[in-house]
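note to self: dont lose this again. the chain is below, predicted strucutre after it. 182 aa total, dont forget to put it in the shared folder this time
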Amino acid sequence: MLIEIAPPAYDVELNLLYATADNLSGAPIYRNPVCLLHPDAAARLKTAIALARGIGCRFRVYDAFRPAEAQWRLWYAFPDPAYITDPRLGSSHTRGVAIDLTLIDSTGQPLDMGTGFDAMIERSHHGCTDLTLEQQRNRALLLGVMSAAGWDHFATEWWHYQLPDPERYPLLTDAAIGGRMM
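---
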């Protein structure tokens, strides 16, 4: 069973871009913009929210659980395993234990991370040094908050975090959640 991530229970701003055409595929991936996570991931998100609040920030969430059907759509749009997990292997998103997000300040403005969400380029990699001091600091803030809350990062995407050992969670389809997204 997945948990819906939405205010007021979760103090986050939702901007679920895969329910819009504003994503790397150029078309909506999801029929319904629903943000879901496995209970283990939802608990760690609550911890991360509290830690972000402590530095005067909140989260803007771009994606969380991604049904297997959606993973295939992304793979067809951008079949690069450095960024999109081959659906035959199973993504941490498809297990409900990954989240794509950024930090926003008290005015709701995202912190400058040097690239936008879903910029599938080397500049999006953790550890990229071709960034301003502010952008490096902002990425370090996000990484610090998420790591302190028990999340692992994905080396090629500054916005992607997942629970450790995601393979221990089952892959899920849209049917498994009652057809809520696709």
